[in-house]
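Troubleshooting log. The previous structure file for this entry was overwritten by mistake, so regenerating from the original sequence record. Sequence copied from the archived sheet and checked twice against the printout by T.R.
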Amino acid sequence: MSESPASGPPPQIPPTRQPTARQPRPTTLRQRLAELRGPSVAPHPLDARALAALAANPGCKRRALLDGAGVDKGVLATALGSPAPFGQSQFAFMRGNAFEAKVKADGGTELLRLLYERLGGGSPAPAGDVSTPDLSAAGPEGRAARTALALREATAAGGWTLLDHPMLALEVAGSPAYLEPDAVVVHPDGRWTVVEIKSFPMIDASADAAKVGAAARQAAVYVLALERVAAVTGGAEVGHQVLLVCPKDFSNLPTASVVDVRKQRAVTRRQLTRLTRIEDIAEALPEGTTFDPACSPQELESAVSSVTAAYAPECLAACELAFHCRARSRAEGAVESLGRSVRGELGGLTTVAGVLAAAAGKEGVSPYRSSPATVGLASSAR
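Regenerated output below.
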């Protein structure tokens, strides 16, 4: 006798699992910036001079992104056909290196003598027991970590310590920047002093005001970076007075002056906090954007144009892309090409054509018609 089939509902067949689409792997900021720079292009270091210039123009997303990605703006400007005569001559570079070597000779004896005369305070004079720790390590991250350790050890030791070309780290718009001052001196009382060595002369105890101002802005960046390490180091304090060492008169003998950078530090800190985070700028770029110098000039022009800039005539002395940005600003008739002060006086008028039309009354009665900047532009156009 055959068995009767079991009563109840038929067995359920499990549904076939459909293959899911592979999700793209998340791209880290480091990978994204490498793609923007070019797969075979090494990152261009962001030094304190460039960082000070970036802080002076925080509204320029173009420079923030290019500097954060490590793009060499000089190479990019040349590829775009707008090279800028930027940077030191080879002769000035060699002269600066020779002067710095003279200042730091014999374990920095002359440098420490100058520092003690100007900023010694109540500490005993540095003698032959000055420590000069080895700061070598693999890569900028390793050197920054080694510098931080040396600063903590020197502060705890309570003596004079000279750090030659230490490496400091500072976060800029969400991306780390590694900075290398000429020297940092740790005092016995735990104070840290930035030393800037420049090859321009100091005649009758004074130097060119513009050059001293640039050195002060650069030193303020180092002070900000040092404060990050001092915040986690017991007994440490970063001095807001830096030592500027220059040749005396027309000789090669070093002399020094104390520069207070509290104002420059406050301005730089405020401006750096205003910078849009680099990942936010990169997120808004079209897919496939790259600044690889191997691309055609047309592709590079498109990539650069996809990031907004904030050009002003002051950029000509601080940015390698300034000539390119100036040409585009002039072609668009933007009033920024005439200077930030003019732009501020014109309010909602953003183009030279609009200013001239308002001055001529072609757009009706305008509150800008009697503006000195508007009248000046109108007069120059006649």
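Residues 56 and 271 are 7 Å apart (CA to CA). Archived copy saved in two places this time.
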